[in-house]
Amino acid sequence: MPTFVWKGRSLAGEPQAGEIDVARREDALEVLRKKKVLVTSLQQKVGFKLPSFGGVSVTTKDLAIFTRQFATMISAGLPLVQCLDILAKQSSKPGFGRVIGEVTREVESGSTLADALGRHKTVFDDLFRNMVAAGEAGGVLDEILMRLAVYIEKADALKRKVQSAMVYPAVVLTVALGATCFMLIFIIPTFAKMFSDFGGELPLPTKIVLLLSNGLKMFWWVIIVMIAIGAVLFKNFYATENGHRTVDQMMIKMPVLGDVLLKGGVARFTRTLGTLIASGVPILAGLEITARTAGNKVLAEAIMTARASIREGETVAAPLKASGVFPPMVVQMIAVGEQTGALDEMLTKVAVFYEAEVDTAVDTMTSIIEPIMIVVMGGIVGGMVVAMYLPMFKLISVVAGGN
Questions:
Q1: What confidence category does residue 231 fall into, taking pLDDT thresholds of 50, 70 and 90?
Q2: What CATH number is given for 251-362 in this structure?
Q3: Domain extent listing, the chain
Q4: Where are the bilayer-spanning segments (predicted)?
Q5: What pLDDT was estimated at residue 226?
Q6: 359-368, long-range: CB within 8 Å, 24+ apart, which pairs?
Q7: Which of 13, 62, 226, 304 is the 20 to 30 A CA-CA neighbour of 85?
Q8: pTM of the prediction?
Q9: Is the pLDDT assigned to residue 200 strictly greater than 80?
Q10: Is there a shared CATH topology between the 60-155 domain and the 251-362 domain?
């Protein structure tokens, strides 16, 4: 029979701890409940234990569905524990179901929902937990959960748009490089063998293409090693404070793609902060959470500067304007929101506008990249074809001149 190690408090608030031998975790909770112990921790005592959530991922879609169903059941008047129990049993992912089940038991033991969620930070982030805490404190948990579900769905849609904007040029560039390497490795050597029988001096473009082909065939492993070393160096550089800031600064200043990333970051910032403030989360906590979820170091630092400004009794808009990162319209609307006391509404309006702007920017980028990549690919392939046929033209002219 397994042994469970538990910690808890008595009804008088005195800390207690011990071990109990029962068949199941539920039995241990039942025994301790009868002893009037408020359980704060309960773990099975084993020599080796696999992580309870290892290998199981919870997608944004899973979290959005869970949140929306939770809100619906709470608004229908079902008790909190019963809602969690139903959601745990009907979860399509066993790992997520186990997490919800543990949250259920912790709530049964006397924990608040926010504290219970806080013990599973890999699934429920700071934003989720803070909004739930605000909903519990204000007695509007169902409204907060529904607002949270809408936020998660919109944030996921925005993330997918920005990712698609970054993936598209990367895929096109990879295909272009792959086609070029294929020609240099497999096609050009066939011409090289034929040229060796011609004799005479080869044209300069042909020499360059043959040199690239021979270099790629002989030193492909050097190129792979250099790419690997470059990737490691970049990763280490990006892990530093200055490196992270430098790369993110360069990303948002890139032509076309930088516009998509900046508008996506602004939309995420305004949507997140607007949702947190509307849910009753204090603005200082909201700005800190928003900075951690900004997705860009430059934006995050500007947000934390705004947080320091608020703490000193100043406005949010002034430091955002001074950062030079946020567009003037965003700064102006935030300033108006602060003056009128409707900051959450203004932030939501800005978020809606910039989410639409991201759609437009992605479409614009796609329409620009397609013809550019066609011209680049045509230039590379056409250049190699011309370089390969120049010796043939020279040979034909020599033969014709001899006749």
A1: very high
A2: 1.20.81.30
A3: 3-44, 60-155, 251-362
A4: 167-188, 218-238, 372-390
A5: 93
A6: 359/161, 361/165, 361/259, 361/260, 361/263, 362/161, 362/162, 362/164, 362/165, 362/260, 364/256, 365/165, 365/168, 365/169, 365/256, 365/257, 365/259, 365/260, 366/165, 366/168, 368/256
A7: 13
A8: 0.67
A9: no
A10: yes
